[in-house]
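Our preliminary data section would be incomplete without showing what the modeling component actually yields. Below, a chain of 209 amino acids is followed by its predicted structure, encoded as tokens that our downstream tools consume directly.
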Amino acid sequence: MSQTIQTLSHIHRFVPGSANDEAPLLLLHGTGGDENDLLGLGAALAPGVALLSPRGQVLEKGMPRFFRRLAEGVFDEADVVARAGALARFVDEARDRYGLAAPVAVGFSNGANIAAALLMGEPAVLAGAVLIRPMVPLAAPPRFDLEGKPVLILSGAGDPIVPAENARRLAAILEEGGAELRHEVLPVGHGLTQMDLTLARRWLEASGL
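Predicted structure:
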């Protein structure tokens, strides 16, 4: 059983894998979560794959997040860029420490947003991404080239936090940046559901990551 690890630049959990020919998963929790939250999801999505799960370094009323926000849905974009860069450096450190290939990010809510920021600002860091209930992290993203990297966006038709137009805009931005993108709008709200697990697992299997 893995334990919380306090070395490297982020507190994290690492679960070694037995499926060494498959990309590890970088698990990125939502607001108020931590390094433990998505381990079960990661194991269900890709049994036997190595799991790397960092804790966000920003606290909002005591709740961990991956970057600061100014209000609900209003992000501190300078902090988004800085935190995405710091997370990219952590991934590099962890790859060296644990002997990992480039990971596939699996992010939920705030974690999906920082994963989207990684795709835009640090595109070489990830092999692909599953973004669950993401928003556009940067109003004017830099030019980036994802070189056909597979990206799955799972939005909720009844999501009270993420406007449908915002999710569509993120999909368009990533597709214009070269991602091999699939965007599914599910009949759900903001929370994680069994439908997310099923679709993400099938997508990961089909993508060959």
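The radius of gyration is 15 Å. The chain has a mean pLDDT of 95. Preliminary results of this kind motivate Aim 1 of the renewal.
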